[in-house]
Design a protein that fits this description.
The protein is 69% helix and 8% strand. The protein has one domain. It has a two-stranded antiparallel ribbon with strand order 1-2. The two termini are 13 Å apart. Helix 1 packs antiparallel against helix 2. The protein is built from four helices and two strands.
Length: 122
């Protein structure tokens, strides 16, 4: 079931969300200052491409991750969260779209503070 949901997710819009995460990571990678955010963006891009059967957990990265998350929110996090929230609202209108809307809610929350998150299989 997880594989079917991931395939449907990818076909019907997951590739857009994952590509936006990769775009954000590439933009930050272009500058030396933005390199600390690149691994978090690429980690969440993989989660955004295929979210079913995976879970986000917090790692304890110390006070540096707090500073990086604040800067991330200012420069990229809010528009990625907005993207995921708009899609979640559109998908939640139908009963079939509710599981997909829930994944977008999880991604919206993760897009606010991606530094210090890890993706694990469940």
């Amino acid at each position: 079931m997880r594989t079917i949901m991931n395939v449907l997710w990818f076909i019907f819009g997951g590739w857009i969300s994952g590509s936006l995460w990769i775009l954000a990571g590439l933009i930050f990678a272009l500058t030396i200052v933005g390199l600390p955010w690149t691994p978090a963006a690429f980690r969440l891009a993989g989660f955004s491409y295929f979210p079913f059967g995976k879970m986000l957990i917090d790692r304890d990265d110390g006070p540096a991750s707090l500073l990086l998350n604040v800067l991330w929110f200012i420069f990229a996090g809010w528009w990625l969260a907005l993207h995921h929230l708009v899609l979640a609202l559109a998908l939640a209108v139908t009963i079939i779209g509710i599981p997909f809307a829930w994944q977008h809610i999880k991604l919206a929350l993760a897009s606010l503070t991606p530094v210090g998150k890890a993706v694990i299989e469940v």
